[in-house]
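User: Can you predict the 3D structure of Bet v I/Major latex protein domain-containing protein? Sequence below.
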Amino acid sequence: MIKEFNTQTELNVKLEALWAVLSKDYIVIVPKVLPHIVKDVQLIEGDGGVGTIVIFNFLSDVTPSFQRERITEFDEISHEIGLQVIEGGYLTQGLSYYKTTFQLSSIGEDKTLVNVKISYDHESDIQENVKPTKTSESTLFYLRRLENYLLNGA
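Assistant: Sure. Here are the predicted structure tokens for Bet v I/Major latex protein domain-containing protein:
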């Protein structure tokens, strides 16, 4: 049964700038903001919209070595993007389903509220070694790195 975990954060950047790096430019941006984890990101299939498949290749000391994701939601009007892991990554750590959805809202001229929904399922009910609170910490860390990237003249 798919479970959900929700969290949110406020970032001190304009919604349009954050949306661009989170939804359109992430193939180039992710290795720049997470250079200690991500070696590169490759577009495997698609044009950046729903159905697009990308692969995140991690550095040699990171296990697992890659994570393949599919964009399952992409709405430029509501600034919402959903990314489902379809191979590697958390699926090698006891999860059978893992999806992160970001929804951005402007809360001021230079502030954006990011609602994060993590949907997940374990391979079995007893195997819960991947906790949504831990994965949400890495997601929030990534968002903070994007904020720093944008604030430092990206």
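Helices lie at 15-24, 26-33, 132-151. The longest strand covers residues 95-108.
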